[in-house]
Amino acid sequence: MCTMTRKLVIIEFITVVVIMINYVHGQGGGSSGSNVNITLNYPNPRRDENVSDIYPKNTIVKDPYRWMENLDSEETKKFIEAENALTRSYLDKSPFRAELEARFKELYNYHRYTSFFQKGKHFFSYQNTGLQNQDVLFIHDSLTSDGKVFFDPNTLSKDGTIALYSASTFSEDGQIFAYMLGANGSDWTTIQFKHIEQGDIYKEKLEKVKHSLISWTHDNKGIFYSAYLEQKYKKSGELNFDKDKNHKLYYHVIGTEQSKDVMVAEFPNHPDYWLEGSVSDCGKYLIVAVNRGTGNLIYIADLEKINYQINGKLEFIPIGTKAGSAKDILSYITNDGKTFIFKTNKDADNSKLVSINIENPDPNTWKDLVPENKTDVLEWASPASDKYVVLCYIQNVKNILQIHDIKTGNLVKKFDLEIGSVFEWSFFSERKSSMMFFILESFLNPGIVYSCDLSIPSLDLKIIRENKLKNFDPRRYTTEQVFYKSKDGTEVPMFLTYKKGLELHRDGNTPTFLYGYGGFLSSESPYFSVNPIAFINNFDGIYAVASIRGGGEYGEKWHLAGNLGKKQNTFDDFQAAAEYLIAQNYTKASLLTINGLSNGGLLMGACLNQRPDLFGAVIAQVGLFDMLRYDKFTTGFNWIPEYGSPSNETDFEYLFKYSPLHNIKIPDDPNKQYPATMLLTSDHDDRVVPSHSLKFIATLRHEAKSHPNQKNPFILRVESDAGHGGGEPTEKVIARLVDEYCFIIMNTGIKFHK
């Protein structure tokens, strides 16, 4: 099995010398408040100046660290070992390390519950007693019972690196559990089956599964799933960073080997498409979403027409226009016969519900069921019994929940909820159930579980459970939403969470943690995480989340204003957030830490290059930094509709202009420098491959050599047996957060208190 090293070994050529010299900090970046006096003797990786690529307009771009893209090579492994050894020796000297570890364990050690869901005669919920690495699936006979353990993924590995993925689901009769397992955080998964009453595990395993749903036929005999069966890949968790090609949809009959599975849909002329199959609520149709970027196409096959005999490729009716177009997204909600309800943003930037007769699916025949709301964004919708459809809107970056009549679309009830978020993954309702469950959370609320009996006309909500942290009183804190102007005058919202009273005496000396994402139509609405609680509670800080363009907070227009050639707006919005926090005397640059992951890691890299004076510390997780080669690995080419293609002349011009790897420019001014920067990646990240971070850290260091004024550190932390973040064990989460906070303390001088 090809894996990165699992031990932190100090390599002979690396030396870490502890000396009594403070870091010298320039304007904006860093702080003279560091309590640890260390000089770092960075590794000196090989540069191959002969490696280059030719891009549009015969632009030659060198890539001297191309060899780092081979993560199986001994040279790359040794570089990673050296980096981890250096990082460990540095972070382990941090003050408050023991206190931080104890505090994060205390914060995580609370009994937390997810929402309930129902299948057959049973109810289910996920629970975690606190420090369990993975949540445990419980089965309940009633909503008032404590339930008993049904599936515990913690028993599958000693270190908690095998996770139960959210696509896992039950057969229609509630008798068989189809569960999806991922190892080491990889997107590659396997599917297995367990009988609910008997507890037996079926013999077959479905391998090479990726980007897949699991959807049961209503006869309970089989499932549809998606896989790359032709990919060079052996088992879940094995490293493979090749391009994902030829995603196909398969039908599997329970009790048979995977070799017997039937391929029902493929797009050989479009090897970059990825497919998701789901059976309609009535069981008569198969809906296939063909995805590329944020856009999709919909295809529908009539299973009843073939008497549910699935023996080969199915005949499909196309619905939609062009895969990859962010303006034509369709999401299946439910159907009555041949009349289907879809959520769409076609001709509706804020999205709406439409009804489509699949016998005549021409877009000109689509009828609005719930028209577009011109101010609020329809985020998701779900059928609820045979009477209703539940709609979740984003209203100024906060969720509101409504029930509408499923036949007429008329509003039936608005729920009076506290400010917070109801995420689709935490919501349950379906056509055959009269029950609805969801969990409401916010920056200060770990989650309230609600139920609603849809058979009762009043549609009243009932609180079933409340998640509560130990030794934390949320009444002492508050969240406010502010609006600030970006570079082009656009108003951008931002949430600030802090201890009450801070707003009365702002003096610019408050530690501040600013988070951003800004991409792929993803909305940064209020969510719960232990990270903000530690920052506002134990550092008396401000936790800020900027809802920058590129996300979906204000619909498709907000998304399109921050992607492709307009991606710079995303960076400008984030930088303007930092400027606002400083101008309004909340904080100052040396006390400001910024953080983002994945697309947010790209945001960190771009802002690091463009405005190094604005930040004291930068923490970039699993980020994209090489925007000229991001499309060469795994699923990267699927992001071309979001970022553009490096081989396209127009796209190349703006990609090359902001690509973090290619725009490092450490200030020549001896009074200025880049802020302290920490990159985090994982050896099994097969979504944003680790080479992005390896090449970026090496290039930062190389550029710093000619700038003796660059004293703030550049460090890299490579997690072993982990991926892009999915299924991360609690133990690893805590270890990562401790390291992040050690880095912040060492480079901004902020103080921890109990």
Describe this structure as you would to a colleague.
This protein is α+β, with helices and mostly antiparallel strands and about 750 residues long. The strands form ten sheets. An eight-stranded mixed sheet has the order 34-35-37-36-38-39-40-41, with helices on both faces. Strands 5, 6, 7, 8 and 9 form a five-stranded antiparallel sheet that branches. Helix 2 crosses helix 10. The longest helix is centred in the C-terminal third of the chain and has 19 residues, at about 730-750.
Summary tags:
five-stranded antiparallel beta sheet; disordered N terminus; 10 helices; 16% helix; 41 strands; eight-stranded mixed beta sheet; alpha+beta; 754 residues
Number of strands: 41
Strand order of the main beta sheet, please?
34-35-37-36-38-39-40-41
As a percent range, the share of strand residues is 25-35%
What distance separates the N and C termini?
Answer: 44 Å
Low-pLDDT stretches are 1-35, 234-238
Mean pLDDT: 92
Oligomer: single chain
Total number of helices: 10
Radius of gyration: 26 Å
SS class? alpha+beta
User: Which of globular, elongated, flat, extended, rod-shaped describes the shape?
Assistant: globular
Instruction: Classify the helix fraction into a percent range.
Output: 10-25%
Biggest beta sheet summary: 8 strands, mixed
What's a quick, concise take on this entry?
By secondary structure, the chain is α+β, with helices and mostly antiparallel strands. Helix 2 (97-108) crosses helix 10.
